[in-house]
Amino acid sequence: MLGARRPGLPGIWDQVVGPGVDQVETGLIVAAMVAGPGLAVAWARASGAGWPWWQWLVLVILASDLFGGLAANSLAPAKQWHHRVGQGPRSHYTFAALHFHPLLLSVTVPLALPIRAALIVYGLLLLGAGLMLVIPSRLRGAVALLFSAIAIAFCSIWLPLESPVGWLPTALYLKVLVAYLVPPDKVRCERRASPSSGPWG
């Protein structure tokens, strides 16, 4: 059951992760928001990156958004919220298009992510989002995973895993295509709403 958005500052959180997120789910989202940047920084350092502080800051912010959003959008509250009545293909495609993280990173750290590679990563995201929105809802889960796997492999030609931002296509496609654009699972949402399910239900 879709909860009501709270007023004030808590309502901003509800707008992002969906109303009704419990403590366990909140902990998972926050952990992803912290662990994601940690992974991104460790990955870049292992690749030999020696950037000024502002480049690291951009990397941390974008990684926190991608990994935290991946966790949040995979949970029932966000799926119910983002796929509620009134949220159609236009809003969903806009959400995908606003994830121009590759372009931002290309401007910030051009040696780590050349503009051609950034355009390929972003273009495949838009292509995948468009495909997801024209196929039947029942097929979106399988198509999202298949498209993401193919797109990640394709991107590795221009953005190898050993790149300082080699993790980017995987996190981006999983967050937007797999977590966000796949509609909620009715059975899982009903199980979560059951009082007997407990915090791990």
**Largest sheet data:** none
Number of helices: 10
Radius of gyration: 17 Å
Mean pLDDT: 89
DSSP strand content: under 5%
| Count of distinct structural domains | 1
Distance between the termini: 15 Å
Indicate the overall shape. Answer: globular
Number of strands: 0
Task: Describe, in short, the structure shown.
By secondary structure, this protein is an all-alpha fold. Helix content is 66%, strand content 0%.
3D architecture notes:
With 201 residues, this protein is mainly α. It is 66% helix and 0% strand. It contains 10 helices and no strands. The longest helix is centred in the N-terminal third of the chain and has 24 residues, at 23-46.
SSE layout:
Elements: H1 9-17, H2 23-46, H3 53-73, H4 76-82, H5 89-97, H6 101-108, H7 115-132, H8 140-155, H9 168-180, H10 186-193
